[in-house]
Every structure is written in structure tokens, then in C-alpha cells.
What does this fold into?
Amino acid sequence: MIQTAQGEAKHVITMGEAHYEQGVIRAIYGAIQDITEKKQKIAAVEAERAKLSTTLNNLLDGVIIINSKGIVKEFSEPAAAMFGFDAKDVIGRNISMLMPEPYSSDHDRYMENYERTGKRKIIGIGREVEGKRKDGTVFPIDLAVTESYFQGEKQFIGTIRDITKQKEAARRIEFLSYYDALTNLPNRYKFAEEVDRFALQGGVGMLAINLDFFSRINTAHGFHTGDQALRVLAERLRRFVSKETILAKDIGARFGSL
It folds into this structure.
């Protein structure tokens, strides 16, 4: 950096070469280039990047920015926490490292097809896919991708949400809709569906099991003991029926099988 006669600071690059005569430096030829404007532009870009990183790091969802070749340019802190990687281990590498097969092998080909044809599969649409953590575990994610330009370079911004808990909750709700939470046997609604299915096939044989005076156990020993008795009975019934038999838990102390 130099200072002009007007007191203005300038960023410069200097280049020079000494001229020797009889082993003594007689002159130095050189050039000086003012790079102040270039430095200011670089500083502005870095400030813009820093502002962007701050914004991305304060979002709940993970954000990953890649270029048209699939190389990661930005990797937000929420994304790092989600995948288990430090940003420095991902930035500069292909985004496919965060994908399980077959997404990993297909991604570059998809990018090439999009560049050639403009046909979209995820960009601007969003879909449920899978991600791969640093430890190799695969987990479901909701992915939305948008296309934009930064300093004339095409980039793709991916917003990622880990939906593992939502998927588990959905599976649990579905399970409770058709299975008894106490015994894990099909409930009466699932049993009724199976009865209808077998009936349409030409015939069905059904066995009903009812525990008489079971309410006395609850009254004398409490509902906890009664529930434990139902669990034990369900497990014993499982051992006495074939794999093809459908064993279900009805309301109260009733069981049924097909």
C-alpha cells in the first residue's frame, strides 16, 4: 500500500528488476499497478458472502449452494449439524458425497441433462429424497432447489429439512390406526379388513377368544397388572398359532384369529 501526494491510500502491485554494470546495480526498472478498485470489489464480494453466511447460519433449515458442476460453494451451519460434516470438509467437493446410492451416481448425469435440455426434476419443484451423514447413515430429507446467478455464475440453492421425526410420527400414527398399542397385535379395524379380504376369496374361519371376569383382575390388582396379563396372554397366543394365522386384539379382553 502506498500514499499519494493528496494523502489517499492506494493498494498496488509492484514489479521490478535490477540492472547491473560490472557487478554494481546501476538502475532498477520496474512498474507499479494500482489495484485499489480490484481490492474494493473483492472486499465487497467477501462482505456480501459474509452477510449471506450469517443469514444462512441463522435459518432452521440447512442450506447448500452448488455451482453448475455440482461443486459445493456454501455449506451452512445447520446443514453441517444435519450431515455431521464441517463446512471445510464439504466446500469444494461434489455434492454427491452427501447422497446415498443411486442418487450419488445419478446426480452428475442429472445436472448434465438439465444443462442440455432444461428439463427439471427437482429444481423449482421440491421433493422428498434421502441424505447420507458422515457416519454413513441415510435419513429422509425434504429438498427444495432454486436456480440463481451470482456474479454471472449459475448456482443452485438447496434448502434441506431433516424429516426423520415427521416420518417416524407418521409411521407411529399409521401403526396406532391399525394395531393395538398394548399388545402390538392388529386391532379390531385391521381385523375387520382382513375378514372382508378373506370373505371375498370365498370363505373364512374365525375364532373368538374372550376372557371371562377379566375385570376382576383390574379391580383387585389394578389396571397395570391387568395390562401386563394381556401382554403375556398375547405373547403366548402368538406362540400357539401358525405364521399364516392372523391374531388380533379386540376391545377389552377379547382376541380374535383367522
Observations:
- DSSP finds seven helices and twelve strands in the chain.
- The first strand starts at residue 2 and ends at 3.
